[in-house]
Amino acid sequence: MEPRLTPSQYGCDLAGWPLDLPIVPVNPTLAIALFMTIDGGVLLGEHIGREMAKRLAPSKPDIIVSAATLGIPVAIEASRGLGLDRYVIAQKSPKVHLGDALVEPVVSITSKGQQNLLLDRNAIPLLAGKRVAVVDDVVATGSSLKALCNLVRKASGEVVSIGVVLTEAHDWRAVLGEDADLLVSLGHIPQFEIRGDEVSVIPETLAHPVPA
Ligand SMILES: Nc1ncnc2[nH]cnc12
């Protein structure tokens, strides 16, 4: 069994929607506030879509792109909020129809090892020459969003904005580089240091970091 950490939850705000997230270890010294978009309910999904749409609308996207699995509700709800129909989801696991897919590597802090993001070649016509908003649930390392931006560009789409529900710490800024300027979010979560069964916020990972 995982040790129970104290405190066990972190309270955050998603554009006016208060949420208590469970604090879970990702390794012996680091814990995160876990946000699972698929467990939040329909009303939270609607709220996320409405608030995400407000923030993405100024970039006038034609279509939204995200990654399976936790990005899927964000893509659907943001598309609904923007009045868009089609959206494109990059897959993480090879599917029978994806033998010939466009591929980009990803390193995640919540899944072990290296994975790939795969874009179905049949989706290329939906993206080529289009203004594309890339969305995801949480940006931590920035690796998934960077891979998504690379896939959109390989498909000749223009990345006009990046929308995430939560930013987590700040490592993503360096990984995204100039693309970090395209990013909008609904909230921020820090990361946590584990000592024994107690956790404390790492000050440099707060929205307005406290220098070490
Ligand atoms: N806090 C978090 N919740 C869910 N997925 C994540 N991926 C990276 N950080 C995460």
From TrEMBL:
Q: Which residues form the Phosphoribosyltransferase domain?
A: 57-175
Q: Does the keyword Transferase apply?
A: yes
**Transmembrane region(s):** none
Keywords of the record:
Glycosyltransferase, Transferase
Q: Does the keyword Nucleotide-binding apply?
A: no
Q: Name one GO molecular function term.
A: glycosyltransferase activity
UniProt xrefs under PANTHER family: PHOSPHORIBOSYLTRANSFERASE, PHOSPHORIBOSYLTRANSFERASE-RELATED
Name of the molecule in the record: Adenine phosphoribosyltransferase
**Which organism was this protein described from?**
Faunimonas pinastri
Instruction: Tell me the lineage of the source organism.
Output: Bacteria, Pseudomonadati, Pseudomonadota, Alphaproteobacteria, Hyphomicrobiales
